[in-house]
Amino acid sequence: MTDLNLHSLSEQLQTWAHDLGFAAMGISDIDLKEHPNYLQRWLDKGYHGTMNFMAAHGEKRWRPELLEPGTLRVISLRMDYLPENTHALDVLEEPNKGYIARYTLGRDYHKLVRKRLATLAKRLQDAAGGHHRAFVDSAPVLERAIAEQAGLGWIGKNTMLINDKAGSWFFLGEIYPDLPLPVSAPKTEKHCGSCTACLDICPTQAFVGPFELDARKCISYLTIEHKGSIDTALRSKIGNRIFGCDDCQLFCPWNKFAKPTQESDFKPRHSLDNIDLVELFLWDEHTYLDRTEGSALRRIGYERWLRNIAVALGNAPSTIPVIEALKLRLSFPSELVQEHVVWALEQHNVDV
After folding, report:
1. Most CB atoms closer than 10 Å: which of 9, 159, 218, 224?
2. 29, 137, 178, 276: the active-site residue
3. Which long-range contacts link 144-148 to residues 24+ away (Cβ below 8 Å)?
4. Which of 193, 131, 120, 130 lies closest to 162 in space, CA to CA?
5. Is the pLDDT confidence value at 352 over 90?
6. Burial of residue 199, with CB atoms counted within 10 A of its CB: 0-12 exposed, 13-18 middle, 19 or more buried
């Protein structure tokens, strides 16, 4: 295709992407510059914890042409997910409520974003031929590095991608095309300035410094990725966060520019944006599976669901409903759950 045709195709992709609900699109080269070295230093320090997948796949994570042979560019797309009112700060300040990361209150984003990306990739194939593969957090892809180079924002001090007109409440997805599409201008300047709000607010002080996160202390890692016992030194700092953590986004000044999502599938289900811990803890496994159907909450399973809520109940005020709920789970057939229930009861000075 001629340069003129490729430019026209790129403009058409922008229109299609917008029609499919994507808020922004950019195109990057496949050379990820300094990002592979940053990743290797992070891995060498062990900051990935038990997320061994971060060290797997060799160079495929930062060399798109190895992951998908023939790739010449990466199309990076943004989809906003924050509903208009999620009661986030109110819930964090109410220790009897369970805080769930706002990206997972509705339908599992993998399903929705993947379907839209596949549709866009098919339109590209119909228009220009070739082979174009779509990803959404489903393969070894340095999506934030790619999005930064595609001009969708900059990687901030909290390691999130930040956009000066949309904050950071969004998902990213990618398409690897075998076409030399014109690249977008990257974000060469990080606009965090002297602000350290995200670093200062982190409940577990998981940031080693600006742009550097020790995931082993991160509440999102502890409540989602980590499969074993949660470090007792960190449990009291988790507060009422039972699935993920949004603090470094909630207090980022750039998020005053975040726009509410237009996707109805991302709206909260089953009142999970504002629900009591005791109610959640008393769900049996059937209820858990029913209420989390089609949700990313399913990924941790019922055992870790109870583990996380037990920690939150240990941090809740000492009330009869809290203590009785914990006592009911003392006999739950899981040493992991029992351990955290015992710890929680000890926080309320209850002998076990």
Report:
1. 218
2. 137
3. 144/172, 145/32, 145/35, 145/62, 146/28, 146/32, 146/74, 146/76, 146/174, 147/26, 147/28, 147/76, 147/78, 147/172, 148/186, 148/187
4. 193
5. no
6. buried
87 backbone φψ class: left, alpha, beta (φ>0; ψ -120 to 50): left
d(CA 109, CA 119): 15
| Annotated binding-site residue numbers for cob(II)alamin | 61, 137, 158, 161, 172, 220, 245-246
Which residues are annotated binding-site positions?
61, 137, 158, 161, 172, 192, 195, 198, 202, 218, 220, 227, 245-246, 248, 252
- pLDDT surpasses 90 at 188: no
Whether the Cβ atoms of residue 177 and residue 132 lie closer than 8 Å to each other? yes
pLDDT at residue 44, as a whole number: 96
Tens of pLDDT along 110-120?
Answer: 989 999 999 99
For residue 266, count other CB atoms closer than 10 A to its CB: 23
Beta-bridge mates of residue 172:
78
Q: Is 284 a catalytic residue?
A: no
Phi, psi of 310 (to 5 degrees): -60, -40
Asked if residue 173 lies in contact with residue 67, where contact means CB atoms within 8 angstroms, the answer is no
List pLDDT tens digits, range 41-91. Answer: 999 999 999 999 998 888 999 999 999 999 999 999 999 999 888 889 999
- Give 232-241 pLDDT, tens digit per residue: 999 999 999 9
